[in-house]
Specification:
Strand order of the largest sheet: 3-10-9-8-7-6-5-4
Shape: globular
Number of strands: 10
Largest sheet: 8 strands, parallel
Distance between the termini: 39 Å
Number of helices: 15
Strand content: 5-15%
Amino acid sequence: MSRPSPIPASFDDWRAQAQRRLPNFLFGYVDGGSLDEQTLRDNIAAWRRVHLRQHVLRDVSACQTATRFFDVDARIPLALAPVGLGGALRQRGEVQAARAAQEFGVPFTLCTPSICSMEEVRAATTAPFWYQLYMMRDRGIVRELLQRAQAVGCTTLVFTVDLARVGCRRADIRHGMDGGGGAAAALRRVGSVLAHPRWTWDVALRGGPLVFGNLRPYLPKATKLADFKTWVDAQFDASVTWKDIEWLRSQWNGPILLKGILEVEDAGLAADIGVQGIVVSNHGGRQLDGAVSTAEALPRIVDAIGGRGLTVLVDGGIRSGNDILRARALGADGVMVGRPWVYANAAGGQAGVARWLGQMEHELATSLGLMGVDKLADLGRQHLAD
């Protein structure tokens, strides 16, 4: 492996630093997609095919990049996406990321299978954060999770709808993260841990307990992540339908975002059922391999549901401030970003996430000005080249 840049300036730089710091099985868990990773690659490539128009000799001395999500100001149109096991990549990683997001001024989304519980994140921050939920077979636990999230001040519910079955993630199979591989896989993981002493000291020794904090009350005897994973895998409910979204609406007092919409028909159903927003998403290429890229799905969906009052976010392959411009020009209200903040967190903790957010803002404002546009709100498809 080549030595990563000492001063990360791009997604690839942050990724290289994270790879150097993390045990192989954890890096592979974050970095990998499903099956042949076609959709993972397409997500990135599709944004690059969206070309921006450059206009000159216009006053862009004060470019405005701020926006609002559900009546809350955001410094740039970006939210930190929910990522499982975030706290296993840096000491209490979700807390560090949430603090960075709060200080910078963008939403942070805590996922259900996080290391840090929602109560821990709330105790470490003052700004409200978003909460992500998977539907579980035990609706009593779902109801209690929602009650807890509202009790700690979570304002927006992000409900993931593209996980009826867990995708076939070959990186997890290779590293035994799927529970297979037996003793040989376990020994390889131990060897990888010992080969990464900074991670071992920061996370394994000082960052415990390494359990799913939100779910700990429901598994009081569980002591390791494997125990939680077995329970979570058994709780995934493949029978969830649109009727369950109606039930969900009755349990949550606030905006609901359905994350995992790729088809126009499903976007229309989301609008019909009365949620406040959707995330155009293919789970970062981690679920259905061969699914359409989000950059390709986004404009069709925006055209179909425009004017129906839904907030439309998009994720998958967002790697730079230019990608945010592309998403906004195609009609998204903003983006959700997962792997980039996770790599920045793994490499530099709270300070790393803060630095990465600053880079995204700088890239966004700089490119907006080079396009001859001074207000992000004015950006539209007229600013894209044919």
